[in-house]
UniProtKB/TrEMBL annotation:
Keywords, ordered alphabetically: Cell membrane, Membrane, Transmembrane, Transmembrane helix, Transport
Listed InterPro entries: AI-2E-like (IPR002549)
GO cellular-component term (any): plasma membrane
Coarse class of the protein's main subcellular location: membrane
Protein name according to UniProt: Permease
Subcellular location: Cell membrane
Family listed: Belongs to the autoinducer-2 exporter (AI-2E) (TC 2.A.86) family.
One Pfam match: AI-2E_transport
Organism listed in the record: Desulfomicrobium baculatum (strain DSM 4028 / VKM B-1378 / X) (Desulfovibrio baculatus)
PANTHER family from the UniProt entry: PERMEASE PERM-RELATED (PTHR21716:SF53), TRANSMEMBRANE PROTEIN (PTHR21716)
Length: 396
């Protein structure tokens, strides 16, 4: 009997690991398809937990969650709609000016290219004449009959190797790249719409979704699950606050730098656009620069170059100072951990994965402290860890 029981246990152990391996393999293979769904769910939960304290306070005045939820999300939508409406007029005027000036830009661009092609053709004719003369001279000195060589015409400017043809190909590639960016932008828009409605319905009644945690975790671990859930719920508002600080900072920088160029109204709209799109790191600053560049093209002159340089400088400032230090400082995370988490999340979820990079680092830290450290490192203090790190670095 003992041998039979041991065989059954061994078979169950092997079967369990085979099933676990199959599940992991299926998850890895389907992760590309499920990554956008998982990202949307993470964003819905994080934003809902971040807004939940405000909804809970307003609930005491209104007696329910529906009105506070509607007011907050309606305010957000109002900001988006007003920003787009305020920017529509200047954008239409700028596009009209660009369409009028575009033929002149193309003519000015083609003139130097045509001159270069003609000079190249003349140089090639001269070179062919010189080569023909040298060949004839060499044949006469050698006593060989001189074979007349018909001069070859240089390639026409319309040939595929001309500079203008190369420029046309480059423009075609640029259009293809723009189409790819537009497709990715459509995917981002779909995720954002999904997250918006997900947040709305979650804030209306979050208890069933949070209760799933306790329906899955065994009863003996409910205390740990509750501690983890409470700490994540306290962290989410800090994350949202740090994100808000970053958005306001970028929006103010764009507003102050664009005011002398475009005036107060247009600079205010550009600042609002930059602040809103700051919630989409990496791609957001690039998208926010497009309206400013279009306005600058409509004005002509060197305005476009100055605007492009200002946006590049703001993006450098954002990537090296604002994102690492504001986000890390607001959530008490090391800037290096935030940066590498961004790289990992971009690889896993795409561009929008940066939105959950810092929160995932904080959640991993919470899970480590609540599930691992309290279980296996109960006597280890933060001072002891810092002391060991100091010794490892040979610091005095």
């Amino acid at each position: 009997m003992p041998n039979k029981s041991a065989d059954q246990t061994r078979r169950s152990f092997v079967s369990y690991h085979i099933i676990l391996g199959a599940v992991l393999f299926a998850g890895i293979q389907s992760f590309t398809l499920l990554s956008h769904i998982l990202l949307s769910f993470l964003l819905v939960m994080l934003i809902s937990l971040a807004l939940n304290p405000a909804i809970s306070r307003m609930r005491a005045w209104t007696g329910g969650r529906a009105l506070p939820t509607g007011l907050i999300l309606a305010g957000f939508l109002s900001i988006l709609v007003l920003t787009g409406w305020a920017f529509l007029g200047p954008m239409q005027t700028s596009i009209t000016n660009i369409s009028k000036q575009l033929p002149g830009y193309w003519e000015r661009l083609q003139k130097p290219l045509i001159m270069m092609e003609q000079r190249a053709a003349i140089s090639e004719e001269k070179l062919q004449a010189e080569v023909t003369t040298e060949i004839a001279r060499a044949e006469r000195l050698a006593g060989e009959p001189v074979v007349p060589v018909a001069p070859q015409k240089p390639p026409a400017p319309e040939d595929s190797g001309s500079l203008r043809s190369s420029l046309s190909e480059m423009l075609g590639e640029a259009v293809s790249s723009f189409t790819s960016v537009a497709f990715n932008g459509t995917q981002i828009l779909i995720v954002m719409v999904t997250v918006f409605f997900g947040v709305f319905f979650t804030l209306l009644n979050p208890r069933p979704i949070v209760g799933v945690i306790f329906a899955i975790v065994p009863v003996r671990h409910h205390d740990k699950a509750l501690a983890v859930a409470q700490r994540i719920g306290m962290f989410a508002p800090r994350w949202a606050g740090a994100m808000l600080v970053g958005m306001v900072t970028i929006g103010m920088l764009v507003f102050l730098t664009m005011w002398p160029i475009f005036g107060f109204t247009d600079a205010l709209v550009l600042g609002l656009i930059a602040g809103i799109l700051e919630a989409v790191p990496f791609l957001g600053p690039t998208l926010s620069s497009i309206p400013a560049l279009l306005l600058a093209l409509g004005m002509g002159g060197m305005t476009t170059l100055w605007v492009a340089l200002i946006y590049v400088a703001i993006q450098i400032l954002e990537n090296n100072i604002i994102v690492p230090f504001v986000m890390a400082g607001g959530m008490k995370l090391h800037p290096t951990a935030v940066i590498f988490s961004m790289l990992l999340c971009v690889g896993a979820f795409g561009v929008l994965g940066v939105l959950v990079a810092a929160p995932l680092v904080a959640i991993a830290s919470i899970l480590h402290e609540e599930l691992y450290r309290k279980q296996y490192l109960q006597t280890v203090t933060d001072e002891y860890i810092r002391e060991m790190a100091r010794k490892a670095l040979h610091e005095k």
